[in-house]
């Protein structure tokens, strides 16, 4: 399979297997003074050979390893890494390469965007969720007071999406990423949605090429949207589908639910709300699709608590709840609702 290139702003996204030589070429073009890799303990073990190879080829200064998991995504980790970079003599002409899932990349991007007011950054996502969604668009940050409370927009110079990494991914992580892919297919509609609708976890597990197609269409959809709106003022808000409810559910579960699972429940519930408010006709179909990919669509919540959490979301200003709803497949829009209205709809569903 050949490599595919996408761009948004000055950021290049390269999708395809065996991208390691492309990484060398990209670093050659940047021509940095000193490079540090940032990754987590799991990737450092699973991809020891890959990282060793990069270290040798690129004469990497050091590989900085953080503890896997969301608990690392805090300002203390950032301070440790900032200090590590100073100790290793990185300058404004240096490069950071982040290799990992959302946690690693959120931190590595934040480090790159703040160290000496911002240095070059290359991102190598290794989870499906990061490859299909979160590593695209330049969001970085850490949890502070709230989830992702502090952060920046900082598109990497290059993002290498190599499906080879997905072979070691636990199934729960695969399904979590699929929720974002399904979200993109609903936003985009057309052939992408049909492909997702007529397949299932079983068929894509058997057919690597089909799985690759899902990933490619997902990347393409996201890149198209962020190209039109980097700072989430308009179109990018569509990507929030499933997330107003999803974030609230994540919070109610004390973050024990994986992000994609909460998003799946969010898409299911927001489809129901879309039927009530915009006359969306395919809510049953959407719920079926999510279930065909082994994703949860229900959660035992208290309606009042859920609405309270939605109001706390940083995207919801002046007491109203902004939710991206579905008018039709391929046609979504942000809608501002007051809580009494949502309470009433949720009580019926
Ligand atoms: P995301 O937010 O993208 O789901 P995280 O950074 O929270 O990602 O990663 C989830 C878990 O998966 C972490 O424990 C991480 O170390 C692990 N992980 C990341 N990439 C891989 C991979 N390619 N194979 C196996 N485990 C991985
Ligand atoms: Zn998400």
Fold and architecture overview:
With 349 residues, the protein is an alpha/beta fold. The protein has two domains: 4-168, 3-Layer(aba) Sandwich (Rossmann fold); 171-347, Dehydroquinate synthase-like - alpha domain (Dehydroquinate synthase-like, alpha domain), CATH 1.20.1090.10. 50% of the residues lie in helices and 17% in strands. The chain contains 15 helices and eleven strands. The protein has helices spanning 20-30, 41-46, 48-58, 75-87, 102-114, 128-134, 171-188, 190-197, 201-206, 208-228, 243-252, 259-278, 283-292, 303-312, 339-348, and strands at 4-8, 11-15, 35-40, 62-66, 95-100, 120-125, 142-144, 146-150, 158-161, 321-328, 331-337. The strands form three sheets. A seven-stranded mixed β-sheet has the order 1-2-9-6-5-3-4, with helices on both faces. A hairpin with a 2-residue loop joins strand 1 (4-8) and strand 2. Helix 7 packs antiparallel against helix 8 (190-197). It starts with a strand and ends with a helix. The model has no long low-confidence stretch (mean pLDDT 94). Bound molecules: adenosine-5'-diphosphate and zinc ion. Zinc ion (ZN) is lined by residues 133, 180, 243, 259, 263. Zinc ion binds next to helix 12.
User: By helix and strand content, what is the structural category?
Assistant: alpha/beta
> If strands are numbered along the chain, what order do they take across the biggest sheet?
1-2-9-6-5-3-4
Overall tally of domains = 2
CATH-derived topology of the largest domain: Dehydroquinate synthase-like, alpha domain
CATH class of the largest domain: Mainly Alpha
Q: What is the strand content?
A: 15-25%
Give the N-to-C terminal Cα separation: 45 Å
CATH architecture annotation name of the largest domain? Up-down Bundle
Task: Identify the bound ligands.
Answer: adenosine-5'-diphosphate, zinc ion
Please tally the helical runs, counting DSSP H or I stretches of 4 or more residues: 15
Quaternary form: single chain
